[in-house]
């Protein structure tokens, strides 16, 4: 396979900072990394150097390259001043549930000067996933890609064209501030943290921002007529993004490490937590850019209606550069960008994706054991005792909930430990409701009143039998604002059988169900003021977090946990915790 120089930069840099050991084992190789989490001095956006938390002294962190069937071992060494956990977003963690990573769900955090070894396999998974901190707002700078190659190599890709080169495209957000302080103050006051100062591509904002030319703009080098596989990941904390490359189109071939029916588009729409694998042919009209350079642009999608929190109306850029055709005196061509609130374009992209059905791969379950109807949205609640700067004489503070249950993680023991020890009392309750407490006009303006907005804090789970099949309707509400929430489930993939706008109506929605080749995902952007229907099989015992991947909304309580019981065999049961599991 031919590789551009930018691809070499992306693939070699992580290995330079990580310990990488590959050795043969029965079912693949062992891919081993050491993640040293510590302080990094860095400058962005005309600001003096500031200290951020990063892995192995780089932003983004190292890319984990593995093949299907490999075992990944990551030694986390916490040299930062903060508690830390790492989540391996989209990895099933079958047999390695203790490695999933969300703080207080599957583990207590690793304290400063502490360490923990994450071990997991990537059997039956190919494509692009990613890893990130799963505590506070630290994933703003602690994140990186996971590239899972077919065991037989690139020739085994089920694509219409085999890629000549591959590029990781990590989208993010940047704050000229300490993100831990931002999150802490937001919690203490009950006032959401401010919006980001910039968007980034591979940690760089691009030259449309002040003081961001030269080494602050990522460059992807291509050769004319080559096919490039872009592994696009939205690692932003709170913002869905439109991605375009001037003069080029894409063919989407996978989402969330699940192969998709090839879908041609000139724009990729990607919510926080999602990944998109897209082929791009370097066949731009040479006269469109005499300088041989084309901007890749990432711009925000603001789905909130009537309005949401302030967001940065700016554009992150990288440059796609044609080798042998570059004239630095000619500026790159900028693509036409969608409007910030272009919901039709976002919905067209997300709803047109379908799965590429392959022999031996999972398909959508046709029989359903449990039906759930779950509202997702914002609201208000009373100040919590630990919110020491909350104005208790003022109206209630912002909150969020699923079926009016606003989630609070435990503080003394992780939920997985409590589950394993049969000691749930005082940690969580098994009463997450299958339906909202009241039926109302979920998307109607008249429903947005103080009574309907109010929610209470709790730690509720939904208990499922091993192999139980679940159909869940996710219904966005008008409370505070309608908004597209990216809902992510740990430990499981699901199939998106239908989605639409307004209040879900079973009679009209059921005929729309795609039970042939629905897209398979781990993160679904529920349409703003609308609904999505997902199905999954609870075939992985453990405690699996389901939450909004807007970090601000997760902190407000937009989450719940599935407690999946053991199956009939040791292989289908939760194993004991590892000896080095961190303790609270």
TrEMBL record:
One of its GO terms (molecular function) is hydroquinone:oxygen oxidoreductase activity. GO terms for cellular component: apoplast. InterPro entries: Cu-oxidase-like_N, Cu-oxidase_2nd, Cu-oxidase_C, Cu-oxidase_fam, Cu_oxidase_Cu_BS, Cupredoxin, CuRO_1_LCC, CuRO_2_LCC. It is found in: Secreted, Extracellular space, Apoplast. Its EC number is 1.10.3.2. Its main location: secreted. It comes from the Eukaryota. Residues 1-18 form the signal peptide. Keywords: Apoplast, Copper, Lignin degradation, Metal-binding, Oxidoreductase, Repeat, Secreted, Signal. GO terms for biological process: lignin catabolic process. Its cofactor is Cu cation. The keyword Signal applies. Binds 4 Cu cations per monomer. Residues 38-152, 166-324, 431-566 form the Plastocyanin-like domain. It catalyses: 4 hydroquinone + O2 = 4 benzosemiquinone + 2 H2O. Belongs to the multicopper oxidase family. NCBIfam families: laccase. Lignin degradation and detoxification of lignin-derived products. This is Laccase.
């Amino acid at each position: 396979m031919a590789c551009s120089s930018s691809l070499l930069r992306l693939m070699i840099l992580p290995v330079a900072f990580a310990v990488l050991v590959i050795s043969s084992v029965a079912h693949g190789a062992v891919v081993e990394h050491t993640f040293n989490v510590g302080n990094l001095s860095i400058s962005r956006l005309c600001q003096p150097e500031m200290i951020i938390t990063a892995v192995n002294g780089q932003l983004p962190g190292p890319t984990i390259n593995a093949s299907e069937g490999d075992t990944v071992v990551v030694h986390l060494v916490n040299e930062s001043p903060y508690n830390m956990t790492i989540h391996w977003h989209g990895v099933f963690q079958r047999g390695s549930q203790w490695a999933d990573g969300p703080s207080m769900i599957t583990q207590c955090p690793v304290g400063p000067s502490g360490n923990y070894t994450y071990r997991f396999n990537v059997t039956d998974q190919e494509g692009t996933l990613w890893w990130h901190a799963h505590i506070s707002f630290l994933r703003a700078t602690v994140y990186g890609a996971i590239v899972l190659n077919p065991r037989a190599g690139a020739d085994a890709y089920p694509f219409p064209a085999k890629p000549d080169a591959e590029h990781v495209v990590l989208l993010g957000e940047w704050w000229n501030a300490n993100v831990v302080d931002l999150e802490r103050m937001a919690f203490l006051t009950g006032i959401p943290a401010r919006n980001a100062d910039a968007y980034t591509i591979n940690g760089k904002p691009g030259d449309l921002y002040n003081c961001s030319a030269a080494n602050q703009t990522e460059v992807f080098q291509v050769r004319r007529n080559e096919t490039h596989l872009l592994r696009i990941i939205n690692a932003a904390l709170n913002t869905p993004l439109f991605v375009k490359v001037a003069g080029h189109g894409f063919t989407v071939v996978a989402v969330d490490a699940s192969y998709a029916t090839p879908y041609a588009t000139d724009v990729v729409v990607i919510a926080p937590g999602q990944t998109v694998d897209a082929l791009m042919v370097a066949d731009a009209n040479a006269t469109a850019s005499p300088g041989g350079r084309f901007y890749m642009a990432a711009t925000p999608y603001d789905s909130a209606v009537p309005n949401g929190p302030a967001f940065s109306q700016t554009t992150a850029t990288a440059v796609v550069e044609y080798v042998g055709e570059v004239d630095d005196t000619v500026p790159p061509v900028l693509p036409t960008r969608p409007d910030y609130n272009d919901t039709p374009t976002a919905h067209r992209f997300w709803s047109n994706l379908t799965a590429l059905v392959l022999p031996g791969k999972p398909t959508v379950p046709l029989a359903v054991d449990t039906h759930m109807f779950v509202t997702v949205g914002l609201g208000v609640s009373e100040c919590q005792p630990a919110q020491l700067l909350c104005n208790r004489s003022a109206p209630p503070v912002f909150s969020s909930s699923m079926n009016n249950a606003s989630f609070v993680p435990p503080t003394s023991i992780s939920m997985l430990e409590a589950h394993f020890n049969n000691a749930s009392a005082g940690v969580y309750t098994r009463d997450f409701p299958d339906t909202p407490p009241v039926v109302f006009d979920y998307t109607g303006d008249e429903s947005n009143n103080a009574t309907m907005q109010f929610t209470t804090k709790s730690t509720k789970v939904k208990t499922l039998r091993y192999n139980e099949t679940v159909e869940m309707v996710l219904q966005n509400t008008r409370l505070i604002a309608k908004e597209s929430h990216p809902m992510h489930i740990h430990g499981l993939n699901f199939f998106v059988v239908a989605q639409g706008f307004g209040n879900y109506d079973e009679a009209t929605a059921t005929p729309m169900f795609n039970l042939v080749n629905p897209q398979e995902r781990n993160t679904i952007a529920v349409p703003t003021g609308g609904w999505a229907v997902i199905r999954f099989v609870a075939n992985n015992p453990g405690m699996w977090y389901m939450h909004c991947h807007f970090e601000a909304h997760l902190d407000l309580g937009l989450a719940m946990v599935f407690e999946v019981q053991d199956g009939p065999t040791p292989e289908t049961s939760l194993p004991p915790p590892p000896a080095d599991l961190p303790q609270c």
